[in-house]
Amino acid sequence: MFKIHIKPIKPTLIAFSLAVAFALQPLHARPSVKQFDKNQEAIFEFLADDMEYDKSIIIGKGHATVINLDYYVSADLATYNTNTREITLKGNVNAYKGNALYLKAQEIKIKLQEDYSFLEPFYLQDSTSGLWVEAKSAEYNQNIYAMQDASVSTCSVNNPIWQLKASESAYDISKEWLTLWHPKLCIYDVPVLYFPYLSFSAGYKRKSGLLYPVLGSSKDDGILYSQPFYIATDDWWDMTLTPTMRSKRGGGIYSEFRMVDDKEQMLWANFGAFIDSKSYQQTYELENQTHYGFQLKYERKDLLTKAQSYFYEDGLYADISQVSDVDYFRLTDGKAQNNADLQGSLLTSRLNYFLKSDSDYIGIYGRYYSDLSKTSNAETLQTLPQVQYHRQIDNLFIDDLYYSFDYQIKHYTRPVGYRAIQQEVELPLLYSKAFANDYVNISVSPVFYATQVDYQNDKGALDTGRYLTQHWQFKANTDLAKQYENFGHTMGFEALYTLPGFKDKKGDFTNFFTLPGDRQELRLSAVQYFYDAQNILKLSHRMRQYFYLESDSQIGEFENEVQYFYDYSWSFLSDIFYAHSENRISEATHKLRYDGEYFNAYVGHFFRDSFAEVDWSRGRYGEANYIMAGFEKEFANLEIFASLGYDYKEDYFKTWQVGFETTIRCFAFGIKYVSEIYPKLTTRGAEAQDDKYVLFTIKFIPLLSADVRAGS
Q: How far is CA 209 from CA 175, 184, 228, 289, 699, in A?
């Protein structure tokens, strides 16, 4: 932004004659002076309603205009000295680039040979951001404006709500960088903050430099100060380093790294550490004195393969989060926790890679679990790694007969307790046939399955487990669809029955392993969808029920999920698990939400009983009793909001907050009061910590923003 450049005029290129110019001008045309380059292209033109020539001085009066390539400058009066190559424009000087006003002044002096100009008074504005700079005077030399008594703001020029006033300043148009010496931040004309030096980008191109600090205060941690430093030396990567200090607790450093590869896929990483003082650790009996962490997220297809290769597609997926404890997330900004796969206190990391062809699939997977509520995860089984080969389904001998093949080896490891290596082989055959005019599809599948589990570090307590089976799967399903006058309806039913056949089982299998075909089971499921006349989904309904026919608990959990969309704003979700063995609900989620143009609100409920089935992959574990609600309301220049989370069994508010934010053109101000209970890892395990604070937010749009936190 803020670029104006008048090219020097070389004496060898001067090719104009005033006498000829005036003599040949039609009566209705404006007098002009032009300069041409060696290709006879006009690079400089001087026009006015009336022109006078006095020796080496050309005087233009009335709508004087200087045009140079992609910009033009207008003024009431302009003079051009052909000897010194100096142009002076006076009175209502306006410079335009394209169709936008670029700068204003009362007087401009331009020395064409030296690429130098003097402007008094001076005004410069960026049409995109609205940022303007006003100064008593400015000198332009070698792409830099040096200004005296400058003011900077994005508010109204006549009566700005805020502005930065500096005795001296400089703006580099090539780097789009504005520097202020001894600036004062003024609310209207009242100084409220002083900086000895301030330098920042006035454009949208990324540049290295200091970002605005974060200041805060806490009863337990003392004064908080963080100073981010932004590094952006290339277009394809950047990094933010943030040293931080808490006066009563300790200090540390955090960093955020981003990189874009040749496929325009982003790699994001976060790493850092915070070290508590010994006295702070002892006072709060913390398990760790150092809180460290590392996170990485990256997804990429076609990493090694080419379209003409046998394996025409491959992919890498990394979602890694390794932290010492939950305090690492609290001591960083919200990005660290938002980018982590954290379900309750369970943190999961994944690293996957696959190769794919028309017939074959090879996958390598790793999964690592960390329970942040424990002082040690030495007994948690990790899958590092898992290797899979899969033969894609293919026709076998006759029509409607298919086969596939799957081999997997899984390495379960941990420092304490038994470790295991499991190998699995599965060969299903599938015969499928449609009946009743394709309304019903029935399939029969004999499945051959074998697995072996070799235990290590079990001190001989577990024998190698071997399991071999040939079992049957029978499936019947139908999908129906019908269009009515005002709505459409689709419905699907499926019954899957597993029948054990031959099986041979030897050795030990702990509860960690599941053995397919080891028992009779029946799974019934149904799904239906309703659409309006415009084919927009209004309601979805799913049901699923397991029956275990050779077990004491013969009926598994029943799941019923309903989603209703009243219109674009209103939606409702209900997901219920019912345990027949206990004759009551084991888990339930309900949520009513409204998303309007100026108003958003939600209210919900989440419940999970202690006997509910455990499913680590879906975060189903532990007990929970939770009610949540919140709203946001926008007015013309005001937004108010509130939210809460209440544990109704333990009778306490886990978190609640209320606040507002108001925006007046270039200025925003907000207050938020927050009360939350969060876990802290002590020598006795995870314990609840109560925290209450007030957060003040001030934004000087788009330049400055600051969060000031005060609390306990």
A: 13, 20, 9, 31, 20
